[in-house]
Structure formats: C-alpha cells, structure tokens
Design brief:
56% of the residues lie in helices and 15% in strands. The chain is an alpha+beta fold. Strand 3 and strand 4 form a beta hairpin. The longest helix is centred in the last third of the chain and has 41 residues. It is globular, with a radius of gyration of 29 Å.
C-alpha cells in the first residue's frame, strides 16, 4: 500500500542542504527536477466533504486539471482528469467515473467553492537505486492562500513529502522512514495536508447546518436552551443570505427556509416559556418571509425534477418543451429578484434586528430543565399526530392529508431538537419512521405544487402566445405522469403510516414517557395504545 508522510521543517534557510547533508551518507539521492506546484482545495459552503471525512483538491496536469478525492486520514479514494479550462463547480460537471459518483452522493447539488490553495515550488528527488518503484521525496517551499486574500499569501514554510510506493521493498522503506522520523528540526504532519492548512490559516470548520439540537444535557435550563437555539437558527439564516443573493446554488435558500420553518415551529411549541405574546408578535413577519421565499423554492424543486419529467414525454415532443422551460426560468429570475429585494428591505432588517435584540434581552423565568419541559410537548405532538393520522386513515382527503403533514412536521422538528437530550435508544425508531412518512408527504406536496406550476405557466404561455399546440400536448404527458406518481405516493403514505403506528414504535415512546414523565405515562398508555389488529 502506497503511503505519504509530510515533515514540516523548522529551519527554512536551505532545505536542499538539509537533504544532502542528512541523507546522502545513507542512501543514493538523485534530483529529478524542480516544478511549480499548486493544490487548490474545494468544499461546499456547509463543509459536506469535510464532514463526510474527505477532501478534494485540484492540480495542473498535462491534460488539464487532475482532481483527487482523499480521505482526511490520507488515503486516496478517486481521481479524475478534467480537460476544461475552468474548474467544474458541481458534481455533475466532473468526468463520469468513480470520483463523480462519490461527489454526487456526498455533495448532491451543492456548488464547490474554493477553500484553500497551496502554492510554491517543489524539488523532486528519488531515493535508492530501484528504478521500477522508487521512493520519492518532494522538498516543498510554499505558502497557504485563502480565497479572500489570494494576493496576500500566508507565511511561507518548508516541508518534506515522502512518498513510498506499494511496490517498494519493505525493509528499505522502513529504513528511509526511520531516518526521516529522526530529524530533529522536523514535525510530522497529517497525511492529508488540508488539515495542516486549516490549522495554519486558523480556519475553523463551522456547523452551519439548520439541523440544530438542544444539546445532550437533559438538566440544562429550558428557556436558555430555546433562546440559544433561536439564535443559532437566525445565524444560519444570516450566513445563507449572500449565497441566496448571488444565486450560487439552490441549497442556500433551502437551508434558509429550513431554519425559518424550525424557528416558527419552536415559537408555536415553546411560546409559553416567554412573557405573553413576546414571541407571537413576530409571527406576521415570519409568515411574510415564508411567503416571500416559498415561490422561488417551489420553482427550484420543479426545475430539479424537470429532466426526469421530460423523459416521460415521447421523443418527438420533447423539444417542444423548450419554450415552457424558458418561460419557467424567466419566472424564476423574477422570483429571485423579488426575494433579493425583500432581503435588502427595511422590513426584513427590522424583523431580524428586533428578533436578535429580543433574544439577547431574555432572562430565564423558570428553573425547569429542557428534558422536563420538552417531554410534555413531545407527548402532545405525538398525540396530535396519531389523531390526525386516524382522521386521514378514515377519510383520506386533501384537507386531512395537509393536517397530517403539518402535525408530522411539527413532531419531527421537535424530535430532532430533543434527540440528544433523551438519547437515541427511545426516539430513534420514531424518528426513522417519521422521517420516512414526512419524505412521502413532502413528495406528495411537491407533486401538487408542480401541477399548479405547470397550469399557471401554461396559461401565461397561452396569454403571451408562446409555444404551440405540441407544447401543450407535451405538458399533457407530464401531467399524466404526475397523476400516476400522485396515486403511487398516496399508496406509499398509507404503508408508511402503518409503519409509524406500530406497537414497537409506540412502546419506545411509552418507555421514554415512563422515564421522564412517569405521572402522565399511565394516562398516555390508556388513551393512545393501538387496539389489536389496528394500525391507528
């Protein structure tokens, strides 16, 4: 197995002298040449690669750019050569192969942004007399560059990179590595240089995901934990504002809206921990912001699914959808402009500053713990979900489906907030079943939104005399596809609801209540336990 070891030299005066005086008495050294090096590291805004345990960097090659996906522990996972003159920004733009498949799985549709750049010169040496599998040494004099200060590099440093190929003789490799390890003026660095670069440039990996929790201390004061969570969610929204305005990718708006929805959900559930109407006074403004962000997100989700829908149209009609798609992009551009104006408006800044000021002024009014306060709300939300599920199971109308979706969303957010508080042993089965149900309900809601978008855009095409009869025929095929998907998704939701309403899931919730709210557990069991043979 090939390995690489990096040594940071504390004496930067003459690394060539270090090599020749230290090693040539023991092993034959040959200078192979000197080259310019540049390693550009990339990741998504929310550090998806790093949080998954990977790094991605690009370097120049004779064919273009060579991209390397590497584990943070150092092992190389996949490489690809891109012959273009511009870095690919999305996983779909990379050459087909292992690297593209892995990137698509990790980063999905997020844009890759520059993270760090290692730039300098490298002397390449070969060690030993073996020509088939030579051990290579790169003596590198370089500096780290941040994207925000590319013209002002950090302090230069010198490192030795020892590369031992898999085919090198084991005993010789061990002798070489032992000699390098004995260097007095050298510090061993992680095999993945990105880790050293982040430390060198004092870049910290931020958790900017909207999936925020109350933490894992069940004795923490409830009001303080809720305030802290509100502040973290607002921070996520603020961090995503520039990406929304620049239109870098659709996930900036997605994360912004998730943080917004979680904020509204927390207000509904925990408002009684605060003085009367202190949180409720902001509800009209949060609703306004939800509406302002909703239409653009609806179009983004539809455009992501459009290619899949287009493939259901006969090939003779597929090209007729181009005018429809062009008009949809025009509507998206207009929705984006409206949202950007809203984010720059006085109303938005008054909302955010007022919310921030109100949270900063909060003082705890109760000594109740987050575990004690949350358990009663979990019980209420769970009861409500089961009730809405029974109503939908008895009469599956659009109204009962919408009510089930809202109840499920509220409980899911509350479960995700509190999962570390109570531990996964009780909540994990319920969280898993609820996520599956919510995904199904969300997919069904998306299908309804897509139908409305098609109808509204087709009417606009008719009024403006864009497209022709064959365009509307092609849209008819998509509408038929959506109708079939709708029916299949409703059947799937019935199955997912039955999984959620099983005795096993219910029993785990009973155990949680027995541990954290023993006084309510008997009444809960009597009122909500499914009867024999019932899914409800």
């Amino acid at each position: 197995m090939a390995t690489s070891t990096h040594y940071l030299l504390s004496d930067e005066n003459d690394f060539t002298a270090t090599i020749t005086t230290t090693f040539t008495p023991f092993f034959p050294f040959a200078l192979a040449g000197t080259t310019e090096i540049r390693h550009d590291y990339f990741d998504t805004f929310d550090w998806r690669l790093f949080r998954a345990g990977y790094s991605l960097y690009a370097e120049n090659s004779a064919q273009g750019f060579r991209f390397t996906l590497q584990r943070l522990q150092g092992k190389e996972v996949a490489t690809a050569i891109s012959s273009g003159v511009v870095f690919p920004q999305f996983a779909s733009q990379f050459p087909a192969g292992t690297l593209q498949r892995k990137l698509q799985k990790i980063i999905a549709n997020r844009i890759l942004l520059p993270l760090l750049s290692l730039q300098g010169t490298a002397q390449q040496w070969t060690i030993g007399e073996c020509t088939k599998h030579p051990i290579q040494l790169h003596a590198i004099h370089a500096a780290w560059h941040l994207p925000s200060a590319s013209e002002t590099p950090g302090n230069p440093f010198t490192l030795l990179s020892l590369h031992c190929p898999a085919g090198a003789k084991k005993s010789f490799t061990e002798q070489v590595r032992a000699l390098f390890d004995s260097l007095r003026n050298a510090t061993v660095l992680p095999e993945n240089l990105l880790l050293s670069g982040l430390e060198w440039c004092q870049v910290s990996v931020q958790n900017i995901s909207p999936d925020i929790t109350f933490g894992n201390d069940p004795t923490a004061p409830a009001s303080a934990m809720v305030v802290r969570t509100f502040q973290q969610l607002q921070h996520v929204m603020v961090l995503n504002e520039p990406g929304i305005e620049q239109g870098l990718d659709t996930e900036f708006l997605h994360d912004f809206r998730v943080a917004l929805r979680r904020t509204r959900s927390l207000i509904k559930v925990f408002a009684d921990l605060f003085p009367p109407d202190q949180l409720g006074q902001f509800n009209p403004q949060w609703r306004w912001l939800t509406r302002r962000t909703g239409f653009l997100r609806d179009i983004d989700v539809f455009l992501e699914a459009f290619e899949t829908y287009r493939q259901t149209v006969p090939s003779t009609l597929a090209e007729e959808l181009l005018p429809f798609r062009a008009l949809l992009w025009q509507r998206r551009d207009k929705a984006h402009s409206i949202l950007c104006r809203a984010l720059r408006s006085r109303r938005y800044h008054t909302l955010m500053e007022g919310w921030r000021t109100m949270l900063a002024a909060q003082t705890p009014e109760s000594d109740e713990t987050i575990a004690a306060v949350s358990i009663t709300r979990l019980e209420q939300s769970y009861r409500r979900l089961r009730h809405k599920g029974k109503l939908y199971h008895a009469e599956p109308t659009a109204t009962s489906l919408h009510a089930l979706r809202l109840a499920g969303k509220k409980l899911r957010y509350l479960l995700e907030f509190t999962l570390p508080v109570y531990g996964p042993q009780h909540l994990a089965p319920l969280v898993k079943a609820l996520k599956q149900l919510q995904n199904g309900l969300g997919a069904l809601n998306d299908l309804a939104v897509h139908e409305r978008l098609i109808i509204a855009t087709a009417r606009q095409m008719e009024l403006t005399r864009q497209g022709n009869r064959t365009t509307f025929m092609a849209l008819g095929y998509i509408m038929a596809t959506l109708d079939g998907l709708n029916a299949a998704e409703r059947e799937r939701i019935d199955t997912l609801w039955k999984k959620l309403a099983t005795r096993d899931v219910h029993r785990q919730f009973q155990l949680l209540l027995a541990e954290y709210s023993p006084s309510t557990a008997p009444d809960f069991v009597q009122e909500t336990t499914p009867s024999e043979g019932s899914h409800g």
